[in-house]
Amino acid sequence: MKKRVLATRENLPGRGLERLSEGAELVAWPGAGKPGPADLAALAPGVSGVLALGNDPVDAALMDAAGPSLRVVALASMGFDNVDRVAAAERGIVVTHTPRVLAETTADLTFALILAARRRLGAAGASLAEGSWGLFRMHDYLGLDVHGATLGLIGYGQIGRAVARRAHGFGMRVIHHDPYAPDDDLSTSVGLAALLADADIVSLHVPLTEETRHLISARELAAMKPTATLVSTSRGGVVDEEALLDAVREGRVHSAGLDVFEREPMGGELSPLVAEPNVIALPHIGSATEATRAAMVDLAVDNILDVLAGRPARTPLPGSTAVAGAPVGG
Ligand code: DGY
Q1: Using 50, 70 and 90 to split pLDDT, how confident is the model at 327?
Q2: Which domains does the chain possess?
Q3: Which residues pair with 257 in a beta bridge?
Q4: Helix (H) or strand (E) segment spanning residue 153
Q5: Is the Cβ atom of 78 under 6 angstroms away from ligand 1?
Q6: How does the average pLDDT of the chain come out, rounded?
Q7: Measured between alpha carbons, how far is 43 from 300 in angstroms, rounded to an integer?
Q8: Is 1 helix (H, G, I), strand (E, B) or coil?
Q9: Closest Cα to atom 2, ligand 1: which residue?
Q10: Is 264 annotated in the active site?
Q11: Tens digit of pLDDT for each residue in 268-312?
Q12: How far is it, in rounded angstroms, from Cα 202 to Cα 238?
């Protein structure tokens, strides 16, 4: 008999959900928007797997609603701050995510943000669209060079390295801060204080954890050069947005390129950072290409099918077991 798997959306890029429904009995949230905790809890009893996105809370209550049959929670995301990992470990549930498949695509977007913020593409494009380009003037929209600049990567995993490779094409010097990553042929490891003081562009590539929440706050922003750009494609909570807003408004940092925010999605209630002329703001599209989003769903599905077949998960979260343990009460 096929095991039941809950997917938090019924429509996802690629053929992953089709494959999942061939190997399992698929129960998908049918709504157009994002399901609330009660919607998912109502569908959860008796499921063996949950396929969730990076912004769906997967907490102890959902795990308990599923009951002792639950073996695997597969995220179609690299980030995993939405999952209660302790609750999963206590219940012997494997938690997986989607590293590797999105690194290059997210690095592309990181570079787009670096270029857009340094060269003031948002403000320049908006003035053209408003019809206010009457004259070519030598002093309009002067930005700062990207080529030859020093790039400081905070977090030097797969995405950080993919950004470093691109940076060398721009003749940049690359330094990184990551307690788990020594020097390599692309980048030199430095302390956080040295990176903040030296980098022209500071780009964040760490997951959101208790250790990294508000890693960039008023103190770190004050340590950056006034000509520096802050870029984030990781998670909103890594940056103290109020402190960043103050720093950008007061010219204490040159600019920011942000794909992620503390409150997502924003609906009509926009973060004040969105309207800042020196901020390029995007709605969390780091991995948003057709091929990459389909690959993320595929990998999440493979993880579910493997665990349900008794095989080790392909990409368990760091610290998660790869094979489901005896569930509590199971
Ligand atoms: C990720 O993979 O973490 C992206 O931010 C999408 O959730």
Answers
A1: very low
A2: 4-101+290-308 (3.40.50.720), 103-281 (3.40.50.720)
A3: 231, 280
A4: strand 150-154
A5: yes
A6: 96
A7: 19
A8: coil
A9: 77
A10: yes
A11: 999 999 999 999 999 999 999 999 999 999 999 999 999 999 999
A12: 13
Rounded to 10°, the helix 290-308/103-118 angle is: 150
Nearest of 120, 107, 105, 102 to residue 151 by alpha carbon: 107
Residue 297 Cβ contacting ligand 1 at under 6 Å: no
Please give the distance, rounded to the nearest whole angstrom, from the Cα atom of residue 54 to the centre of ligand 1: 6
Q: Is 104 one of the catalytic residues?
A: no
With tokens 């009893």, the residue in question is: 45
Alpha carbon dihedral 89, 90, 92, 97, in 10-degree steps, equals: -20
| Overall average pLDDT of the 176-198 stretch | 98
Q: SS3 for 288? A: coil
Mapping DSSP to helix (H, G, I), strand (E, B) and coil, where does residue 311 land?
Answer: coil
How far, CA to CA in Å, does 173 sit from each of 117, 149, 152, 180, 301? 18, 6, 9, 20, 39
* Exposure of 197 in the CB half-sphere (CA atoms within 13 A): 5
CB 208 within 8 A of CB 79: yes
Q: Is 107 helix (H, G, I), strand (E, B) or coil?
A: helix
- Which is catalytic among the residues 85, 176, 177, 284? 284
- Tell me phi and psi for residue 72, to 5 degrees: -145, 135
Could you say which of 25, 90, 262, 264 is catalytic?
A: 264
209 contact partners, CB below 8 Å, separation of at least 6:
81
Contacts of 215 (CB under 8 A, 6+ apart): 154, 204, 206, 238, 239
Closest by Cα among 295, 301, 293, 292 to 74: 301
- H-helix or E-strand spanning residue 277: none
pLDDT (0 to 100) of residue 329: 41
Provide the CA 217 distance to its chain's centre, in angstroms.
19
Spatial CB neighbours of 131, under 8 Å, sequence gap ≥ 6? none
From 51, 53, 56, 78, the mutation candidate for ligand 1 (largest count of ligand atoms within 8 A of CB) is 78
